[in-house]
Amino acid sequence: MSAARVWMVTGASSGFGEAIARAALDGGDTVVGTSRSADRLRGLADAYGDRFVPLALDVARSSSFADADAVVRDVVAAHGRIDVLVNNAGRTQVGALEETTEDELRNLFELHFFGPVALTRAVLPHFRRQGSGAVVQLSSVGGQVTMPGFGVYCATKFALEGLTETLVDELPGVRFVIVEPGAFRTGLFDSSAAVVSAAMPEYSGTVGPTREYVATGGGTQPGDPAKAAAAIHAVVTGERAPTRLVLGADAHGGIGTRLERLGAELAEWAEVSRSTDLDPVGTS
Question: How far is residue 50's CA from residue 31's CA, in Å, rounded to a whole number?
């Protein structure tokens, strides 16, 4: 990867996206930052001048392959290359499956899965020609650990992680990093960013605590977005990178507990698992 990189960061107007853009810009690189409204990117443009390029892009509404190809083609035409794609744009959605409307479900998949997949697919030919490149998928601890009320949110992250892990094996010349943050002090829980499905009383005992957490938890999260951005920048630009970068002590602990539980369950049911193969020829 060249010393001076060109980054494309979706959802760069706030939260992780803004922090990652600043880390790349402070490192001397150029950033094409996207937001649904280019006006929300004015602060970065004023601070960094020509090295920050604002781009109005609604990821959820530009999730077709043709749209993504056109966006990436324009970035490459303007800057000569693209080195890092950060699929960061996202939002919170809270609701049991029965509470979630079809539009809410499909819209979240457009934003968290189909949009990032289309952009990822669009950069791959350029990365192959360059012989280098990196894709950062902003997933979540919810890409491995579920919680009542976050089922649809987690489903989008599980899907993106599964596809990205496959890409690691399909394209060994490209660096893929799945970032799994825990609770960080971003605006993800703000009322303008969170979609909360209409509540059903039948789920007050299971999903109710999650609704309360989202409604009141903003500003209390332990994670520092600037430190997360520095960690992401380091693995993108460093010699080595993990496939999954877990950020935050809460995420590290939660994922560790899940892996222990899965390992114990796998061992407990090993005899049943192994008993379902065809018998060797000649045995009865």
Answer: 9
Q: Is 203 a catalytic site residue?
A: no
The conformational region for residue 170 under phi > 0 = left, psi -120 to 50 = alpha, else beta, is alpha
* 220 pLDDT more than 80: no
Q: Which of 139, 140, 197, 203 is catalytic?
A: 139
Model pLDDT for residues 176-205, shown as the tens digit of each residue: 999 999 988 787 666 667 899 999 999 999
- Alpha-carbon distance of 258 to 154, in angstroms, equals 14
Sequence-ordered strand ranges (E) for 62-214: 84-87, 92-94, 134-138, 175-181, 194-196
How many residues does the structure list for the chain? 284
CATH class for the domain made up of 6-274? alpha beta
pLDDT tens digits along 19-65: 999 999 999 999 999 999 989 999 999 999 999 999 999 999 889 99
Query: Is 139 an annotated catalytic residue?
Result: yes
Q: Domain extents for the chain?
A: 6-274
Model's pTM, two decimal places? 0.93
* Cα dist from 134 to 52, 107, 235, whole Å: 19, 26, 10
- Which residue is catalytic, options 14, 35, 63, 153? 153
The verdict on whether 153 is a catalytic residue reads yes
